[in-house]
Amino acid sequence: xxxxxxxxxxxGNIGTDLMFKLLRSEWIxxxxxxxxxxxxxxxKRAREHGLATFDQGLKAALEEISPDIVFDATxxxxxxxxxxLLKEKGIQAVDLTPAARGPLVIAAVNLDxxxxxxxxxxxxxxGQATVPMVYAVSRVTDVSYxxxxxxxxxxxxxxxxxxxxxxxxxxxxxxLELIGGAKQGKAIIILNPAExxxxxxxxxxxxxxxxxxxxxxxxxxxxxxxxxxxQTYVPGYRLNRDPIFQDDVVSISIEVEGLGDYLPVYxxxxxxxTAAAVKVGEEMAKKRMSTVK
Amino acid sequence: MAExxxxxxxxxxxxDGMHAVRHxxxxxxxxxxxxALDQMGVSHIEAxxxxxxxxxxxxxxxxxxxxxxxxxxxxxxxxxxxPTALLLPGIGTVDDMKRAAEYGIKAIRVATHCxxxxxxxxxxxxxxxxxxxTVGFLMMSHMVSPDILVEEAKKMASYxxxxxxxxxxxxxxxxxxxxxxxxxxxxxxxxxxxxGFHAHNNLGLSIANSLAAxxxxxxxxxxxxxxxxxxxxxxxxxxxxAVTEKRGIRTGLDLYKAMDxxxxxxxxxxxxPIQVDxxxxxxxxxxxxxxxxxxxxxxxEMFKVxxxxxxxxxxxxxxxGGQEDMIVDVAVELEQKQQALQK
Lengths: 293, 343
Known about the structure:
Chain A is α/β, with parallel strands linked by helices. Helix content of chain A is 40%, strand content 25%. In chain A, strand 2, helix 2 and strand 3 (52-54) form a beta-alpha-beta unit.
């Protein structure tokens, strides 16, 4: 069966990890990697794995190639330029930067709604990890307030995140409301420099409408089902402990271990982004191939 | 000493002290305490949720009052000192800071874990643009060497911080550690950048450490009335006023007013005494973030484990400030271990 031919924009850690995941895909073939640094390790790895590479950015590359789909793993600033170029050419884009030009997509929750969108945004790592949990609660009973605390290892927080940490908290909070279904959302991020580096860890608090025993059991089940669902594309996603119910608050604690494709396993926060992007791209591919037939 | 050393004191009763009262100070409490503080010679009065702007949360405890009411109450009565707020990037945002400035805040202290200064660039830069006096706050400074602290302090100064603090969040430092850290910063930073010190009394050393910091060139010291603060509290303002006067260090503090406010206003508002007890002492001993105290107490009660075991385990895992959620997770693990042993 044929596959969608993809270009990966950005030859940094994220772009390179994404390539390794796409190389295993049955639906997408990573054909090109586009960077701006000819000496980057990412472009070297890409060539080793048979991808054609470009080191003059997207505009120059698009004169020679016409990908079916583009994954952007550069920066929010660069993506604003890229989004325009790709839109002009009618190329579908999965945006892993915080630029948020297109609708926000959490792979486990609202992927179907935006499967035909020309540009989708992957929110934040904290969003990909925690919004599914809020959604798992809000599909059982109303959530008036959801709060998440994402703790990641310092080593896995790049300069982009560090220079604009507000973007993380604001965008994640928005996704808790828009996609998670909470009336009000709040996000907190903590960097921990411990050696050896810690795995990504998230605590999710939801203030719930109904608190009777039956509802609690339903919420517990719903959470476990959602964990299994996320595990289909992020195998290292797991509960640290049973959900705790106290008064009208349920608290959920999860840990995300990465696959260690290119990024180290502790960088589960980055891994969940690339894994979610692949999932979104694959669903888009399935849909497009079935309609082409 | 030919010339007397002159320093200024920032009071944190209405910020760090909030940890000790589970962030439950009312608008009336704030006005009463801030008015008294404003009459006793402190240069800055910090008033915010214990975890800074945006800190009111399920993770850290919800504030009794909204941030707006709390800050406006403080700013409305402060005439002499600078109303100040704390901000932890990752919890509070630039937008929170802009709102705080509208409520009347004149100075902002931007706090990060001591190795993560680069997440403060955005907030320190914006604060300077807004014309706020800007302070960098390196938390948990006992965890790393003076060399690393110098690197991180330089980053904060390069973003625009006018003062950089060494913060002993765990109350784990001894006098020598304070001395080498403060003197390293004083030696390495441009002379236009002030160096400050924030103590916790978990090992009973807050006064001694604050004095050592001044001797090494720190010109900004944090205190709170009756020591009200996380863990075993901060450097007690009234005690610091007394010892600095005896040492000939000029602070501008009014000793009797400080004593009266500590005993008559703050002590009656305490939920439990601020003291070096087995829990706060364990924090200093194990090097754990002082704000964890009441959370650890509660979690230990809920899961029937010794809170000291929880704190020691958190210390081993090198948990940093803000990771209050780990307290429950560790308590659950210890409970499970206990149950496994009993079987």
